[in-house]
Specification:
By secondary structure, this protein is mostly helical. The protein is built from 33 helices and 2 strands.
Length: 778
């Protein structure tokens, strides 16, 4: 099916592009014309004006000197030579453009208060200043737009930007409604009605112009949608939808604002829904389908031509589908949209840019379009590969149980083939590879909007890494071959591999879990390091090989941990190399992997003193906690529990195990930002009962049950472990009864034994202990 796309595309769509390359060379992807540079004199004027506009008021200065501003103002020019009103400097789109939003907001408040004083009214948010005296009242809606634009620009870094933008949009609407109400009460006619138009005088026309000047337009709503589209909050999409719905509602009613969404309104909303916020895969699919419905509406005959989609509109919908990482069907949906884009582009060329279809010239599949198509096929390939691997491992396990499959055959994936072996994702990955070849072909024939880049190659390499597993030893070799091709093509800097390229190959080797996997990962790591070392006679590096980052080292650590015999010492050495490096520093994940490597080493009964690997794990966790104070890295709560669990499961019974467990427990409780939980108490109890004997054990258990009940974490499992006794010895019945009475008190003959509710106040109801947990003792 995809072969047909390539043949048809190369025969028709690509060739039709050749005749339009020269004609479209002066256009950008979405059809915007390039402007000629301004003259030198105009540049000098603009720089002077910018210097005046960017002068910031002194701290704590809130009163805007309106009259003084009129005197000091100069003629303001835009890039196109437009002359702005010297009394309204905010009409210049560059007005305070480089200032932070809080300063622009302070300017607006100062201006509103100053004008209120000039017209002898008291300013309040619910009573914005309005006057029909044209000599004193020069405000219009642009003052609010400058603030909204400032918050839209800062929304990615300013968490409260969307809420601030909503406040000022509502303020501008209230300002306009106050002016309209004042007009209607003065002239006793509805603003905007036919009666107002027929009875208009020179004075009423001037007054109506002031009211019209305060009317918000669609860009006000777009600024709010843009703020939410750039926000990381979970409510960003519903809020974006709310403001788009307001525009659509205004368009379908007789609202006096007479607003309707434009193409940018829908594009901003599509940007919002396509970002893939959250982890709900079902919700991601619903949002992608909603984005496609909006796209199809914009293409329909019922929609105004002013909202027709562009390349970016389609790309937002494609991005929404590629956020559905667990859906096989998205590859087909993405390819349908790509074909649709190519068909629109072909029609635009065939129609010669007719006025009716002029919007079609703005729909041109670009590099981003085809790269997301590759990603869609890779998603499907990864889903099929994971299912194929699970089925294959299950089949091999059954054969091993029946003695029909040797261990070596299972490890290298050389067992008998099945009819489902072609369902391992290889076919889908070939489709992705063919799209990359298609991109290269389009670039070769001069298509300006499509160019092979390192992003496309990295997408394919990431696909190989996703398909790699212990049953596919060929995948890392294919990935290596592609990476070497990228390195050899050194004349094309656009496709030269970056750190993501190398990391994908290293990840593929790590997932292969072969005897030489870790060694191959080390090879690529050292290649990145060695190629960046200064060579004799050169002042700087001679090759553009990327330097390794923390993710590179972490992937190599994974490779050593995934070996049949994990090498925790080598993982520790990699951490030391990162700490000694001038170009890369370990992150929280780096320390976490070292800690888990030592814990895994403890449980696999490697040579050495029992408990020594747990000690090394705790030493790294203790160092990580010390670094947390510097704000760079920090531990996860699971690391503390993992140390306790490993110490409890270790075959060692030395006091070093208990010492490490106690340090980890109290560090989590008192030094970290986390709280201990019921399972931490259970593991510490198991360790103490395993290591200690006699009176020391009893004292330890009594102290621990007191602390556990005080913290409200006495659980069903904690009681059962205490009653059961140490794993390595069998308690007599009398000893059990004595321990129970020592820990939990004597049974009340009238009501039986019951645990105080405060002992388990922080434990889920289903895990709270009852008398049944002690019944077998008696």
């Amino acid at each position: 099916q995809f072969s047909k796309i390539l043949c048809n595309g190369m025969a028709s769509s690509s060739c039709s592009r050749l005749g339009t390359i020269v004609r479209r060379s002066s256009c950008s992807i979405i059809g915007r014309r390039k402007h000629s540079p301004p003259s030198s004199s105009l540049l000098i004027q603009c720089r002077r004006q910018s210097a005046i506009l960017n002068r910031r008021p002194p701290p704590h200065h809130h009163h805007y000197d309106y009259a003084s501003t009129q005197i000091r103002s100069i003629l303001l020019f835009g890039d196109n030579g437009q002359q702005f009103d010297k009394q309204r400097p905010w009409h210049n789109p560059n007005f305070m453009k480089d200032d932070p939003p809080d300063q622009v907001e302070a300017w607006l408040i100062s201006l509103l208060k100053s004008v209120s004083i000039d017209i002898h009214t008291e300013y309040s948010p619910n009573n914005p200043p309005v006057s029909f005296d044209g000599t004193k009242f020069m405000l219009d809606s642009r003052i609010y737009l400058r603030v909204l634009e400032a918050y839209a620009r800062a929304a990615k870094h300013y968490s409260g930007a969307p809420q601030k933008a909503e406040y000022w949009v509502n303020h501008s609407i209230r300002h306009y409604e106050n002016a309209r109400s004042l007009f209607e009460s003065k002239y006793r006619t509805k603003f905007g009605s036919e009666l107002m138009q027929s009875n208009q005088t020179q004075q009423s026309a001037a007054t109506a112009a002031i009211v019209h000047g305060l009317q918000p337009d669609v860009e006000f709503y777009n600024a709010v949608i843009e703020c939410w589209a750039n926000s990381k909050e979970q409510i960003s999409i519903p809020r974006s939808a709310t403001w788009l719905s307001k525009l659509e509602a205004d368009c379908s009613t007789n609202n006096p604002l007479l607003l309707q969404p434009n193409a940018r309104s829908y594009d901003l909303y599509l940007n919002s829904v396509s970002r893939g916020i959250g982890k709900n895969s079902k919700l991601h699919l619903e949002r992608a389908e909603e984005a496609e419905r909006i796209l199809q509406y914009r293409l329909s005959s019922d929609a105004p031509t002013s909202i027709r989609p562009t390349t970016e509109s389609y790309n937002y919908v494609l991005r929404a589908y590629t956020r559905c990482r667990k859906e096989r069907s998205i590859a087909g949906k993405v390819m349908t949209l790509v074909r649709e884009m190519e068909q629109i582009q072909k029609e635009a060329v065939m129609n010669g840019g007719h006025d009716v279809d002029d919007w079609k010239m703005n729909v041109v599949p670009n590099t981003k379009t085809y790269t997301m198509a590759m990603d869609a096929w890779i998603i499907k390939a990864g889903i099929k590969s994971a299912a194929w691997r699970s089925e294959k491992i299950a089949r091999n396990n059954k054969l091993k149980q029946k003695g029909l499959l040797q261990q070596s055959e299972s490890d290298d994936g050389s067992s008998s083939t099945s009819k489902d072996d072609d369902d391992d994702g290889t076919k889908e990955l070939e489709f992705a590879k063919s799209i990359l070849q298609y991109i290269t072909a389009l670039e070769a024939v001069g298509q300006a909007d499509v160019r092979a880049s390192v992003v496309g190659y990295n997408t394919l390499l990431t696909g190989y890494a996703r398909l790699a597993n212990e049953l596919r030893p060929d995948i890392p070799l294919i990935a290596e071959q592609l990476l070497n091709e990228m390195i050899d093509a050194s004349e094309d800097r656009n496709t030269y591999p970056d750190v993501t390229s190398f990391n994908a190959v290293i990840k593929a080797w790590g997932k292969a879990k072969k005897l030489n996997s870790a060694a191959r990962c080390e090879y690529w790591l050292h290649k990145m390091i060695n190629e960046n070392r200064p060579r004799e006679g050169y002042t700087q590096q001679t090759t553009p090989i990327a330097q390794p980052d923390a993710s590179t080292y972490n992937l190599v650590m994974d490779a050593w941990m995934n070996m049949d015999n994990p090498d925790a010492a080598r993982v520790q050495d990699l951490l030391l190399e990162m700490k000694a490096s001038d170009t890369v520093s370990p992150n929280s994940e780096s320390y976490s992997k070292v800690i888990r490597a030592w814990l895994k080493d403890e449980l696999l009964n490697q040579l050495g003193v029992k408990g020594s690997s747990v000690e090394r794990a705790w030493a790294n966790l203790d160092e990580l906690m010390s670094l947390e104070a510097q704000g760079d890295v920090g531990p996860a709560p699971e690391l503390f529990t993992s140390i306790l669990k490993t110490a409890a499961r270790s075959e060692g019974r030395g006091e070093n195990l208990l010492a490490v467990a106690q340090e980890s427990f109290w560090a989590k409780r008192n030094r970290s930002r986390f709280n201990v939980d019921q399972i931490d108490f259970v593991f510490l109890l198991e360790i103490g009962m395993k290591v200690l004997v006699g009176k020391e054990r009893e004292t330890f258990m009594v102290d621990l049950i007191r602390q556990c009940s005080k913290d409200g974490f006495v659980s069903k499992r904690f009681v059962r472990e205490a009653v059961r006794g140490p794993v390595h010895e069998e308690w007599p019945e009398e000893e059990r009864e004595r321990i129970v009475q020592l820990l939990f008190g004597e049974e009340d003959e009238a009501v039986g034994f019951s645990f105080p509710s405060s002992w388990s106040r922080n434990v889920h109801k289903h895990d709270q202990p009852s008398a049944k947990d002690l019944m077998h003792v008696y």
